[in-house]
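README: folding subset

This subset contains proteins for which both the sequence and a predicted structure token string are available. Records are stored as plain text. Below is the entry for Rhamnulose-1-phosphate aldolase (275 residues), shown exactly as it appears on disk.
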Amino acid sequence: MRVLEAKFVQGFMRMADDGWNQGWHERNGGNLTYRIKKEEAESIREELSEDGEWKEIGTAVPALAGEYFLVTGSGKYFRNVMSDPEDSIAVIELDDKGENYRICWGLVNGGRPTSELPSHLMNHEVKMQATGGKHRVIYHAHTTNVIALTFVLPLKDEVFTRELWEMATECPVVFPDGIGVVGWMVPGGREIAVATSELMKKYDVAVWAHHGMFCSGEDFDLTFGLMHTVEKSAEILVKMLSMRPDKLQTITAENFRDLAVDFKVELPERFLFEK
Ligand code: 13P
Ligand code: ZN
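--- output ---
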């Protein structure tokens, strides 16, 4: 099968386009990676090259040795993924140590995978292990309202989780484990990758202060839906804070406990502190 005909490639491209349409991907902002299933890699084998030069990932992900990923290119625009996928995205393969990658398809006009490849792959490794292999998608977006909140809320997991849960009743059902927050760091390297993957052991969402968000999920719908839900909740909070700095009424800790029972989710008590 041709790479561009594969269902997972079409799902990846649609998700990139959805993110572009949300306004989360100015210029080359954001990046997306998908851990390809063995049978999916087999189905496009005829178009995968084995001549690519091995290059350093910049970190080690031994549990992902030999895996194939579909990735966005560094400096490439989400806006162009639909119209020019072969220029914008790539299939890469990891070596048997999980320390190097090579390009097997795509990026036909040159270039390399996203500069956030260390963060993506370290997150993939953590989430693959934490979910018994279920999670396959890691998504980084420059979500406007979440970024705005990182200037006015304390950069604490408990505060972001509780405030965003309060803004929409379904939020604790969509991200019951909560949200992690990384203070400002230089992007693109191993240090921020280690900090983010540490949070991903507990959460499916990590906020990068003054930069954006990382989400992890099983498939494109769930991962995009998670990003969309958190960002929508952040938009409501920004609107609320713009109208008046305090709340006249809200969803209380006791309300959340009732919701948890009916919706059969476990909400950690550390997010249900009295205010
Ligand atoms: P890339 O173009 O290298 O993917 O970088 C975009 C970005 O959002 C960095 O955090
Ligand atoms: Zn970014």
